[in-house]
Amino acid sequence: MEIPQSLKGVVCALHHLAIVVPDLGAARGLYEGVLGLAAGQVEYVADQKVNVLVLMAGGQRIELVEPVGEDSPVAKFIERKGGGLHHLAWRVTDLDQALGILKGRGVRLIDQEPRQGAHHTRIAFVHPKATGGVLMELVEDPAS
To answer: How far is C-alpha 52 from the chain's CA centre?
Structure first.
């Protein structure tokens, strides 16, 4: 996938694809058991009220995201659309700098400041109206 024009010069590479699932156990059976993807441990992300399971398909990271509670933003997504592709996440080396560049370009953001993501990452979401209707996340890995 080509990097959207609004994000050019900000992102380094695709970090992961996030797929919303209503039942992480059932989805894990498909992705790990049937497809043979390598799975890590489930992590609870309190800020977003979700459980996240990272799977690896070769070098590509896939995250299965399950809502925990009816007030999770992901639960609202499932109510409206069912499960499925939720967002694309882009790797950035400096999230604060990336947000500053995007703000300077007038790009609409969901998160004005970084917040804590799964696996000790720092994240921020870009509004889908700024990226052709696709929800996008910026991710700074702890080793960046």
So the answer is: 10
Strand-pairing partners, residue 123, are 115, 139
pTM beyond 0.90, yes or no: no
| Nearest-angstrom CA–CA distance, 94 and 24 | 31
Residue 47 has pLDDT above 70, yes or no: yes
**Could you tell me the two tokens for 58?**
């070769």
From the options 3.40.50.2300, 3.40.50.2000, 3.10.180.10, 1.10.3490.10, give the CATH code of 5-140. Answer: 3.10.180.10
**Closest C-alpha to 131, from 48, 20, 8:** 8
The Cα 74–Cα 86 span in angstroms is 9
**The tokens of 99 are what?**
């947000």
